[in-house]
Amino acid sequence: MNQEAHAGVFQSRAVSIPQTGFRIAKKRDKRIGLLLFENCSFLDIGLVVEIFSLANSVAVAWHEQTAHPYAVSLLSSRGGQIRCTNSITVETESLDATEPASYDVLFIADGEGASAAADDKRTTDWLKRVFQTVKVVQASGNGALLLKGAQLPSARGMIVPIRPAGTRLNAVSENNLQLDINAGSLMLTALSLVKTDFDYETAEGIAEQLMPFSGRWLAPLLGDAPNANIASTMKEAARWIEENCARPITAHDMARSVSMGDRTFLRHFKAEIGMPPSEYLLRVRLDIACRLLITTTLPIDKIARRCGMGNGIRLAKIFKRRLAVSASDYRAFARTEFDNE
To answer: Is the pTM of this model over 0.70?
Structure first.
């Protein structure tokens, strides 16, 4: 079943999802496998699928990508229809028809059939091959029994193995991806992946769209929002603005410099610095222009380019609006005052 066929499993009130930094490499999709069994929870499966579907929509809308960052496949031991809770059936692909090494993430659903699958050699052999290369595995409920039956590490309450693709099971690096997971929840694992690949605000926005008012209980489970030390982060952003003010920069560029969503960055910057980042940028550029007018004989047009104001006409308008004096009069007056000292 393709990604488009899953869209719209859940309908919720519209919530704006921040348009923020996106970290997945564009070389190929991140392949997500959901291994299902008879009587598994349709709600759990639907939430996971919809989380990645919404993340794909964010990537396409903001980054104008034609390809989705996540490719989701529903799997079962022999393929075909699997009956979930509430007598809902879903179509799945057979494990034999998929390449185990192609998956980046594997979710193992709960369900009565999970314990029986632990005795199914076809399924356990496939899992062992998956574990050689997959980056993240998360099992829910009875799904952990399947991993135990395959003599693989239990994924209950954590993600295992957390390692770069292409390495063996025992080659775990301390610098690998770390996700915030609680009690084997497939939904939290999916949101944590989105948080890692995009940012906290995107994961939070998706959760709010699927489950309104989830922020009150979700934040502790997803972990603290990045850049918890807001004051030092905003000072870092201010320094970045000062160092890059000579070139065209946007509020989105400023937010990305500290790995924040646009709206979150604007809110914190104003609270910590006392003004919007656009105002801070303008003041930095104006200060540089004033110093260059006093200390150099550079033409006004060249000064405008050096401080990021584009041209002399724009610089002149800003001087008139902010200082009620022309740039040339400011230079002449400042030099007269300097000579009289």
So the answer is: no
Question: In the chain, what are the domains?
Answer: 3-222 (3.40.50.880), 227-341 (1.10.10.60)
* Tokens coding 319: 């001087």
How would DSSP label each residue in 8-72? TSS-----PPP-----S-TTSPEEEEEE--TT--HHHHHHHHHHHHHHHHHHHHHH--SS-SEEE
Name beta bridge partners: 137: 106
User: Which distant-in-sequence residues (6+ apart) come within 8 Å of 263 by Cβ?
Assistant: 18, 201
Bridging pattern class, strands 70-76 and 30-35: parallel
Q: How far is CA 118 from CA 21, 53, 74, 121, 153, in A?
A: 40, 30, 19, 8, 14
Gyration radius from the chain CA atoms: 27
Query: Are the beta carbons of 119 and 149 closer than 8 angstroms?
Result: yes
Lookup result for tokens 């940012």: 199
Tokens 């829910």 belong to 140
Distances (CA, A) of 162 to 110, 123, 133, 271: 21, 21, 10, 37
Q: Is 160 left (phi over 0), alpha (psi -120 to 50) or beta?
A: beta
Q: What is the tens place of the pLDDT at every residue in 160-185?
A: 332 233 333 333 333 333 333 344 57
